[in-house]
Automatic annotation (TrEMBL):
<keyword id="KW-0560">Oxidoreductase</keyword>
<dbReference type="GO" id="GO:0055129">
    <property type="term" value="P:L-proline biosynthetic process"/>
</dbReference>
<dbReference type="Pfam" id="PF14748">
    <property type="entry name" value="P5CR_dimer"/>
</dbReference>
<feature type="domain" description="Pyrroline-5-carboxylate reductase catalytic N-terminal">
    <location>
        <begin position="19"/>
        <end position="90"/>
    </location>
</feature>
<protein>
    <recommendedName>
        <fullName>Pyrroline-5-carboxylate reductase</fullName>
    </recommendedName>
</protein>
<dbReference type="InterPro" id="IPR000304">
    <property type="entry name" value="Pyrroline-COOH_reductase"/>
</dbReference>
<feature type="domain" description="Pyrroline-5-carboxylate reductase dimerisation">
    <location>
        <begin position="161"/>
        <end position="264"/>
    </location>
</feature>
<comment type="similarity">
    <text>Belongs to the pyrroline-5-carboxylate reductase family.</text>
</comment>
<dbReference type="InterPro" id="IPR029036">
    <property type="entry name" value="P5CR_dimer"/>
</dbReference>
<dbReference type="Pfam" id="PF03807">
    <property type="entry name" value="F420_oxidored"/>
</dbReference>
<dbReference type="InterPro" id="IPR008927">
    <property type="entry name" value="6-PGluconate_DH-like_C_sf"/>
</dbReference>
<feature type="binding site">
    <location>
        <position position="47"/>
    </location>
    <ligand>
        <name>NADPH</name>
    </ligand>
</feature>
<dbReference type="GO" id="GO:0004735">
    <property type="term" value="F:pyrroline-5-carboxylate reductase activity"/>
</dbReference>
<keyword id="KW-0521">NADP</keyword>
<feature type="region of interest" description="Disordered">
    <location>
        <begin position="1"/>
        <end position="26"/>
    </location>
</feature>
<feature type="binding site">
    <location>
        <begin position="60"/>
        <end position="63"/>
    </location>
    <ligand>
        <name>NADP(+)</name>
    </ligand>
</feature>
<dbReference type="InterPro" id="IPR028939">
    <property type="entry name" value="P5C_Rdtase_cat_N"/>
</dbReference>
Amino acid sequence: MLEPRSDNGPHVKHLTATVGTESSKQRVEETFDASLHRITVLTKQENVRAIQDANIVFLAMKPIKRAEVFAEPGFKETLRGKFIVSIMAGITTKEVERLVLGGEPSDSETPIQAVRAMPNMAARIREAVTLWTGSIGTTKRNLKIASWIFSQVGEAYEIPEGSFDICAVLVGCAGSLLLLAIDGLLDAAVAEGVRRPEVQNLVVNSAIGMMKLVPAGDHPGVLREKIASPGGCSIRALLELEKLGVRSAFTTAILAAAEKSKSMSSS
């Protein structure tokens, strides 16, 4: 529930979360023990109850489970009139509208208020990059609320829905691909007799520092050229990666993820 907006955004009065099992409920309550006076944790059997008093409803289930959740008696009916924020991967705002209306015609005077968003795991430390887009008819007030919500856990960017799938997988998947690369670098250290914990921070912090040079104005290709001095170690390593087709492998992986994202609303 929200209290009236201030200059800095809405004040969150209370949060209600639903989870799948009693063990998950206990884990969430333990995590937020200090804030339980403002948080209610229920199990999925009480989804409708959780929605009834809410101003904003987050849909955060796995996309494959959406049909099961929306089939719960009273679920989609209770959602109508609420501001819906979906972070279901690959699910378009049109699909959200279809799920809520259940095949009934849309009321043009009171359109579904929905935002589709994709944050990443760095939200845990308030360093996320979140992409979001609103459905046609979503009010400016609700769009501002969505932007404010996601800015609390990092940077938030509104983008057209037509670009959402490729951009979302870049935000959601690129981190895991880069982590795979870092893991490979650490394997090399182990192969040379250095313990992984001894160099993990060196590699990670070095990568973070280099990545920060890009938004500061340096193009990745230019940076790579600056580092790879003639006859040096870096150019030899880069040539090995090119020989192995690593650059095209990253491209192919992201394109495959984007195609999967595009297909999820129809599956």
